């Protein structure tokens, strides 16, 4: 388990962060840490009514944080560059409604040296940012558990935002009512997930979702069970869709994604390759649309190079 000590220096940076957030009227203070720490001591050090969000890479490192009155966030982004971790933390915080989509947040983090807070940023989230909230998903009233839907939508949003190897990538996930969905599906090529143990097909596992991102470059849809397992990948759906109302400009992937939800009780989550937009369909209708997130947070003013290491 990784740790980050709450040294005198780190504690002073936390207090500075609190002071900055209170002075500027920010929604919350976000601490981006490199591991677990003494969560109770963090709360005492901050000594403030502010919402205190603590973000680390692994769920295990967050033990005791909620009990200490902090808002824990697991990023599952080990080894990702700092900016990506920061951005992800903000998006997750907005998704959990800890900060408003157009809110302000002060972040304290280690920009230069692991384990040592050295940077404080005051960030304003763009009002165009519209992150899926759990309430949005609850409105869908689907037989698919919320936890699964959230995992699939998170993955879809990441695919739409990140693409693969510098290129935009599209994808489709058909979630729930697997048996009936498979009646309308055919392999479009060798399925890399076929034959894998169930444990290695669970989309809640970050390693599995990384594999899914790779496979999304190939043709076809993922068929996902209601409990979040990839049952098949690379599936071409064969469904008639004459009576569907669709926006102009959407092609075969979106048509098929919508049509399968008319024939079955599944929810489909479709990422457009051309725009990165994620659409959710249910009963043949578009029920939710999520724009790519990276347009939402402004990072342009935030580019910097760390100082050179060495003694010169
Ligand atoms: N019936 C289908 N079942 C599963 N996947 C499909 C189906 N039809 C198309 N696709 C996938 O969608 C890809 C893109 O198709 P197309 O460009 O027509 O879709 P689109 O809806 O315009 O989506 P995008 O915005 O991503 O381009 C195909 O290469 C294929 O991988």
TrEMBL record:
Reactions performed catalytically: 2 ATP = 3',3'-c-di-AMP + 2 diphosphate
Transmembrane segments: none
Designated name of the protein: DisA bacterial checkpoint controller nucleotide-binding protein
A GO molecular-function annotation: diadenylate cyclase activity
Residues covered by the DAC domain: 126-292
UniProt keyword annotations, A-Z: ATP-binding, Nucleotide-binding, Nucleotidyltransferase, Transferase
Recorded superkingdom: Bacteria
Entry keyword annotation includes Nucleotide-binding: yes
SUPFAM superfamilies for this protein: YojJ-like (SSF143597)
Protein's organism: Roseimaritima ulvae
